[in-house]
Amino acid sequence: MRLRWMPIVAALAGGCRSSDAEPIRLAVGTAPKDRVELTPSHALVEYTELPNTKNELRIQLADYEIDCSAFVPPDEGKTLLTITLVTPPNDKPGPGEYPWTGALAMGRVASRGAIPAARLGARAAVLPPGGSVRLRRVDLSAHGSVEGVLDLEFAGDGKREATSVRGAFAAKMCRFNPSETP
Fold it and tell me: 92-102 pLDDT, tens per residue?
């Protein structure tokens, strides 16, 4: 898959629009309503350092207007995909693999990893562990951006249906909160 740079224009509310985004394919079940092609019109990234705890890089991809000042839930027929990448406190996020193992969701931050979440309209979709996020380009400055590829997949296990999230993305920094400690 070839990653193309998406033209990005900062919105007044701190969001970022993409008029040439490629679709991200979400499958969170077997029903037709559970299969969505998300073509992000807004792609944001927030970076926060929590001293002695962890670093978080939160990527939000939506097909409606979002910004960093407040959570805006999707209306019916709209989709929000949030991927939180976590690293230990002395390991800033950078290019590389971030697996979704489930351990981070339980508060264990021993290494880098991803925590995905999806909202399809008013419904939150559970994404069981599996696969990874690969960051190709990371600029953690106040006006930086992040580019990567989503390759999250859970094959199903008899109790839970198969899920997947696949596609390339680019997002512009909208909130930058580095630690004040040296």
Answer: 999 999 999 88
